[in-house]
């Protein structure tokens, strides 16, 4: 993970993304999970899945997976549409999939909205197993790697708590 990129995501991207969302979606738990999942998925180093996978953005969304899910979910569609209008994007899978590759704010909004679809309250600081379960539920990784999760989860929380 790049310390500079992690700082950029935490200080610049997440606050802007949260400002585009309803206040009820903003919490330390949400910020910590966004950081942990970004670390888990891309280490905030890859905007396109390596070595040659289909996922885009730091939170690694696939067009027919997370992008389609957020655009079509009854709880998130009414939220993402105005965000897309504000940012000047059309609300279709292809445009959103292309945009999240380089628009970190939009990618973060998609990640937060995907978390919104996961049942249950977001995990508190010492609930890494609950966070792992929610990550698996939302992202459905093809080859989950549980080993780095506790460290990524703690790093997310440590960063949020240092504010």
List the helices and strands and how they pair.
Blueprint: H1 3-19, H2 28-42, H3 63-72, H4 77-87, H5 93-99, H6 104-116, H7 128-139, H8 149-161
Helix pairs in contact: 1-6, 2-8, 3-5, 3-6, 4-6, 7-8
Instruction: Give the overall form.
Output: globular
Give the uncertain stretches in residue-range form. Answer: none
Instruction: Compute the average pLDDT.
Output: 95
**Total domain units:** 1
Oligomer: single chain
Number of helices: 8
Radius of gyration: 14 Å
One letter per element, helices H and strands E, the order comes to HHHHHHHH
**Total beta strands:** 0
Which structural category do the helix and sheet elements fall into?
mainly alpha
Q: Summarize the biggest pleated sheet.
A: none
**Share of helix, binned:** 55-70%
Strand percentage lies at under 5%
Question: What distance separates the N and C termini?
Answer: 19 Å
Q: Please, could you describe this protein's structure?
A:
This protein has one domain (3-161). The protein has helices at residues 3-19, 28-42, 63-72, 77-87, 93-99, 104-116, 128-139, 149-161. The chain is built from 8 helices and no strands. The two termini are 19 Å apart. Helices cover 60% and strands 0% of the residues. It is mainly alpha-helical and 163 residues long. The mean pLDDT is 95. The protein is globular.
